[in-house]
Amino acid sequence: MTTNDGAPTSAPLAPSVLTRLQLGLEQLYRVRTDLAVDAFVIDEAERQQVGPVRAPREQLFLRQSGDELDLALFVDPATVANLERHDPAEGLDEENFSDFCLAVEGVSHFVYIALCAAGERRVSALELELQAEVDKFACCVLLTKRGTPLRRRLFNDVRFHSDLDDNERHRYQTANDQANRYAATLERRFIWPDRLPDMLGELRQFYRLGLSAKLDHIARASS
């Protein structure tokens, strides 16, 4: 590539996989954070400076200082590198499925927290985890063939880290169970009848609910 005066220029860099996930989620839910997730990603050395109690492969850090909220996102670099090699936009398989879900979870947390902070709305850790589980299901549905056993793989074939304390384990288990119930209703109402455009409208409404309303909605939809 050259400029008008003939001087060579570098080709524009392709957006990172995390950026593409952020744009995909914001497009799916018709929201805008006006933030670039890549600017908030930290590496392992920076994470260790924070001094986390646990060091999972994906982790969002929050620090409140007056009216300011500082965000930092860690996603295992090996996960990102694998997704760059095995682009999920070209399909999900054994090469990239687990890493895709991990990356979606991290970006989901980032987008949801950013939106809640911009709207000055408090959000609980359970609400954050529940929405991330729903986001993983929705993203996988849109990238896989109909009939793929996604719900079982995402919600039944799951193991929790052994270093979780009781409160953390209960939170993750509750988010998993509730998302599984909701995904079952999405399958019945939209996926099996091949009504995906209608499912997107349902997902957008769900996204804008608070935790109590989300749980009530799941209970009504699955009854």
Topology:
Elements: H1 17-29, H2 44-50, E1 58-65, E2 68-75, H3 77-85, H4 97-118, H5 125-143, H6 150-156, H7 166-191, H8 196-207, H9 211-221
Helix pairs in contact: 1-4, 3-4, 4-5, 5-7, 6-7, 7-8, 7-9
What does this structure look like?
- The chain is mainly alpha-helical.
- Helix content is 57%, strand content 7%.
- It has nine helices and two strands.
- A two-stranded antiparallel ribbon has the order 1-2.
- A hairpin with a 2-residue loop joins β1 (58-65) and β2.
- α1 crosses α4, α4 packs across α5 and α6 (150-156) runs antiparallel to α7 (166-191).
- The longest helix has 26 residues, at 166-191.
- It starts with 16 loop residues before the first helix and ends with a helix.
- The mean pLDDT is 92.
Question: Can you summarize this structure?
Answer:
The protein has 223 residues and is mainly alpha-helical. It has helices at 17-29, 44-50, 77-85, 97-118, 125-143, 150-156, 166-191, 196-207, 211-221, and strands at 58-65, 68-75. It contains nine helices and two strands.
